[in-house]
Amino acid sequence: MALLLCLGLTAALARGCLHCHGNFSDKFSFYRHHVNLKSWWVGDIPVSGSLLSDWSQDTMKELHLAIPAEITREKLNQVANAVYQRMDQLYQGKMYFPGYFPSELRAIFREQVHLIQNAIIESRIDCQRHCGIFQYETISCTNCTDSHVVCFGYNCESSAQWERAVQGLLQYMKDWGAPSPCSLISPSFTCLEPPHLANLTLENASECLTQH
Predict the structure, then answer these.
(1) Exposure letters 95-104 (e unless 16+ CB within 10 A, then b)
(2) Distances (CA, A) of 99 to 36, 95, 157
(3) Which domain holds residue 204?
């Protein structure tokens, strides 16, 4: 399990992720403006229009992530292309029978949420393939600016490598000088200091780092 170092960004402020993609505005503007051509039943039009207008805000409400919503540009492109492909296919059809179009929009929305969840979490999990401090570039879903995630990987092949990784973590936190409310960062981790490293297991380290 990878440890995410808090960088002061919170998921609570995020509006979504797909809206950070370069083609989002044009794509969804087209979808909204042509929604009245997709259903025989007039009642489907306002429902579908609302789904499209609230897409970004509703996405974040459904993500339920305990970590900041930050996604790599590569994964964002993959999610966006998958969503646009399904949406374009839906819009290629003629008018649909009552209830079908908004139902399909909801299905695409749910798939998109699942794809974003997986993309963000997979990047965190990939951290454990490294030993020690690791950093990767992301896009912040809060404001669509370039950001980065710093994490601590446990995939060390020797006790000496593990000790260097822990020392690197301690030095990183010292250099960062992270203040409260970053609960995962503390100015003092006695369980990770040199006298305790010899008998320190990965499980104990994880427990230590999450208790502070």
Answers:
(1) ebeeebbbeb
(2) 13, 11, 56
(3) 156-175+189-211
pLDDT digits (tens, 9 = 90+) for 83-99: 999 999 999 988 888 99
Q: Say if 1 falls within a structural domain.
A: no
What residues pair up with 150 in beta bridges, in sequence order? 135
**Same domain for 113 and 21:** yes
- pLDDT reading at 10 higher than 80: no
Strand, coil or helix: 73: helix
Check whether residue 171 and residue 119 sit in a common domain: no
What's the average model confidence in pLDDT over 97-112? Answer: 95
The number of distinct structural domains making up the chain is 2
Mean pLDDT of the chain: 79
183 found inside a domain: no
Residue 65 lies in a domain: yes
Is the predicted pLDDT of residue 12 greater than 70, yes or no? no
Report the SS3 class of residue 135: strand
